[in-house]
Design a protein that fits this description.
72 residues; alpha/beta; three-stranded parallel beta sheet; 6 strands; globular
């Protein structure tokens, strides 16, 4: 499955075998399970809670190519 462009919330989602390209991805510390998901040129808007910090850390360490920019 492919998602291209637009915006999407990952809150309360289960995703498997999905490619996100050029998507603004939102996450605010709710239930989330991802399996074999690829993010290409996506922007992430993640709440600074415990689950959001874990997701951010997982994203930064699970790929050999990650570009990070803090918007604060």
């Amino acid at each position: 499955m492919f998602f291209t462009g637009g915006a999407l919330s990952l809150d309360d989602r289960y995703g498997k075998n999905i490619v996100f390209r050029n998507v603004e991805v939102h996450y605010s510390d709710r239930q989330l399970t991802l399996e074999d998901v690829i993010f290409i040129n996506c922007t992430f808007v993640i709440d600074n809670g415990e689950a959001g910090q874990k997701l951010g850390a997982d994203l930064l360490t699970s790929s050999p190519i990650v570009n990070f920019r803090n918007s604060a």
